[in-house]
Amino acid sequence: MMKLKNIICTCLACCGLVATVTSCSEEELSSQSVIKVDQVEYTPFDYWLERNYVAPYNIAFKYRYEDNESDMNYYTVPARYESAVILAHIVKYVCLEAYDEVGGIEFTRSYFPKLIFTIGEWEYANNGTFILGTAEGGRKIFLAGANYVEQYLKSADELNHYYLKTIHHEFTHIMNQTKNYSADFQLITGTGYVADKWSTEGYSGGYLSRGFITSYAQHSPDEDFAEMLSTYVCNSEERWNTWMQQAGTDGARAIATKLDIVKDYMLTSFNINIDKLRSAIQRRQRDLTGGRIDLTDLTR
User: Fold this and answer.
1) In this structure, are residues 251 and 202 in contact, taking their beta carbons and an 8 Å threshold?
2) Which of 4, 97, 228, 271 is the most buried (most CB within 10 A)?
3) What is the 3-state secondary structure (H, E, C) of the chain?
4) How many CA atoms lie within 13 A of 46 on its CB side?
5) Which long-range contacts (CB under 8 A, 24 or more apart) does 141-144 make?
6) Distance (Å, whole) CA 130 – CA 123
7) CA angle, 227 as apex, 121 and 77 as ends, to 5°?
8) 254, 128 Cβ separation under 8 angstroms
């Protein structure tokens, strides 16, 4: 503590304020901290988060900007208050409560990460792509681009692409960190993984016929597994069947084999039937895009 006080006095002298300081003795310096931390004033949204995230799930939804939660390798901006309110409602209704419906609230409470942190802008990479979200160590889901959510509210495809699929994808990673999936999964298209080349010419198209449900699934087995589950639950049976027709015989067979492993994993590891999960998510998505959910109500 004395060392800190000496540094403070030195700084004052260097700033030409030595005339106002008669002594740097232990006796004359205040015992109170010289570092003031402003108290955050609770908003109606904070109280809503307490009732809808903390109380039922013990999940913190952070929307105020925090350096230690952000990736300093990217230029980022805070989430707007109004956008964060909407995004928190979406995550609760389409994700948390969908898992509650199928697996029970104890499943969601036990396995869903205890921190969701959002920022306003996407994290742009130098390869022409941008990061929608990440999962960290089973404890945190990071969501970018909150400030754009209002413009996608009428489109399930865009909500899936930018937010909902990301959440289900990252939650899959967290479940995999808790209970690993069968090693047989990565053998199905074992020579097809291309790491960061997945977005380059030659790999950004034709992935269905190679046995991958998305181009990003070609990155690695872990990403492939997360893409399989998240893409399946976020899209209708009709759309999935269309993709299987486009994949051709070999591609569709590989994807179907992967899907069987994903279904078995979720059922045996977590007692989750992903066909029922998809049905719940699809219904909730229709409620959302149909305007039947008030995404700004902070009274309940």
Assistant:
1) no
2) 228
3) CHHHHHHHHHHHHHCCCHHHCCCCCCCCCCCCCCCCCCCCCCCHHHHHHHHHHHHHHCCEEECCCCHHHCCCCCCCCCCCHHHHHHHHHHHHHHHHHHHHHHHCHHHHHHHCCCEEEECCCCEECCCCCEECEEEECCCEEEECCHHHHHHHCCCHHHHHHHHHHHHHHHHHHHHHHHCCCCHHHHHCCCCCCCHHHHHCCCCCCCCCCCCCCCCHHHCCHHHHHHHHHHHHHHCCHHHHHHHHHHHHHHHHHHHHHHHHHHHHHHHHHHCCCHHHHHHHHHHHHHHHHCCCCCCCCCCC
4) 5
5) 141/113, 141/115, 141/116, 141/117, 141/167, 141/170, 141/171, 141/174, 142/69, 142/116, 142/117, 142/118, 142/170, 143/87, 143/91, 143/116, 143/117, 143/118, 143/119, 143/167, 144/76, 144/118, 144/119
6) 5
7) 10
8) no
Q: Which two tokens stand for residue 204?
A: 């950004």
Token readout for 214 is 């998305």
